Amino acid sequence: MVQSVKMSGEPLANIPWEDKPAGYKGVVWRYSKNPIIPRDLLPDSNSIFNSAVVPFEGGFAGVFRVDKTSREMNIHSGRSSDGINWEIEKEPIKFIYDDEEIGKSWYKYDPRVVKIEDTYYIIWCNGYYGPTIGLGYTRDFEKFYQLENAFLPFNRNGVLFPRKINGKYLMLSRPSDNGHTPFGDIFLSESPDLIYWGKHRYVMGTTGGWQSTKIGPGPAPIETSEGWLLIYHGVLTSCNGFVYSIGAALLDLDEPWKVRYRTKPYILSPQRDYECVGDVPNVVFPCATLHDPDTGRIAIYYGGADTVVALAFTQIDELVEFIKSNSL
Ligand code: BMA
């Protein structure tokens, strides 16, 4: 099928996929066998959720948030041949670093993985005197190297763009507080070397409805002929607590702090049992996508209720049309 909206990137013929169920109304539809990763996949896992995957060596690799039964939070690497059935390492990733201060990390959670040239960068929420943005890389998913934290505390939801723009690395993030932050807008920062960050730009903030309390970037933006496709989470405060939904925006290709379109309605919200019931009810939290430029297929990996990993699908032409015709 010829796509009218072009996505950059390598073909991915083996992307996990299911067609939209007949009669389904939404622009994003769930995998019929969700969740794909149960909370107890590892002997001592309390929950496995908010995790990131990439194509790797003909199959897939990933970095997974694993909260143990001790409630320690850490990130583990994993492999899959089909993107659906995963083997996750029992031990957390042991990063190599050249300054012991870099190794100070009280917890790690909510990883993103972004391939830039031949390197897979891992970005996560790192416990260093409060939550901030940890950064590391691997080339083989065997050896992992940790870099300096990108930002000062408090910050969450860091994610890199998949290529340099005007010779600079770009990172989206969401400055926070030390707790269950009741506010939050998305900002962009740039760096020549992944160590020194500056030229901070406001990208977008809260509005109403499902994105009225705070928002945060999710998976790495996907480059398309219509702009950078950003899938993000938005939070509403109900009388029963936070509700996490998913929305989408199109950012300017050259100046990605400029928002061209942004969905007023959510594209996915917590409605199934595995999204509504778990350690934190009513959460869908996206951390990764896979995409195939040849077919326009996009697979979205998201955490359900801070407990499991689930999968959903959309198609680029349909999603871009939805974003443009339902924009704020
Ligand atoms: C956020 C993060 C996420 C989590 C969400 C809902 O602040 O901690 O890991 O999914 O809250 O609890």
* Mean model confidence by pLDDT: 97
What are the segments in which pLDDT stays under 50 over at least 5 consecutive residues? none
Q: Determine the fraction of residues in helical runs and give it as a percent range.
A: under 10%
Total helices: the number is 2
What is the radius of gyration?
18 Å
Strand order in the largest sheet: 6-10-9-8-7
**Largest sheet, strands/sense/barrel:** 5 strands, mixed
Overall strand count? 22
Bound molecules: beta-D-mannopyranose
Shape: globular
N-to-C span: 30 Å
Strand content: over 45%
User: What order do the SSEs take from the amino end to the carboxyl end, as H and E?
Assistant: EEEEEEEEEEEEEEEEEEEHEEEH
SS class: mainly beta
Structural write-up:
With 328 residues, the protein is mainly beta. Helices cover 4% and strands 46% of the residues. The protein is built from 2 helices and 22 strands. Strand 2 (45-56) and strand 3 (59-68) form a beta hairpin. The radius of gyration is 18 Å and the shape is globular. The structure holds beta-D-mannopyranose (BMA). The site of beta-D-mannopyranose has 9 residues, from strand 7. Residues 50, 109-110, 244, 280, 283, 285, 303, 306 line the site of beta-D-mannopyranose.
Write the topology of this structure.
Layout: E1 29-30, E2 45-56, E3 59-68, E4 73-80, E5 87-88, E6 95-96, E7 108-116, E8 119-127, E9 131-138, E10 144-146, E11 155-160, E12 169-175, E13 186-191, E14 198-204, E15 214-217, E16 222-224, E17 227-238, E18 241-251, E19 259-262, H1 273-276, E20 284-292, E21 297-304, E22 308-315, H2 316-325
Bound molecules: beta-D-mannopyranose.
